[in-house]
Sequence to fold (107 residues):
Amino acid sequence: MVKVTYIHADGREVTVEGRIGASVMETARANGIDGIVGECGGAMACATCHCYVDADWQAATGPRNDGEDLMLDCTAAELRDTSRLSCQIRLTPALDGLRVELPAEQH
Ligand code: FES
Fold:
């Protein structure tokens, strides 16, 4: 298990434990984190799992893939360099302590 901290737009932080191999979206849903809906179940077809990866964790999580770029063009929330679809970030031991911010528009 690894720790993931979700930072709400109002500054509230919630840290939960996630299973290795689960996505950041699945971990949020399993722990009742509001702000990540994950409507399509991780099929990269909804963008309701948009998050901003903390700058310190950007290298560890890697770049967006082409499918993410396409979906994030349609999101209501501001697109940033750190924007990712949280369903596309799989937890590994190297991501223990990961911090992601949730767009205000998803609350
Ligand atoms: Fe739908 Fe991530 S859950 S795009």
Q: What stands out?
A: The chain has a mean pLDDT of 95. The chain has one domain: 2-101.
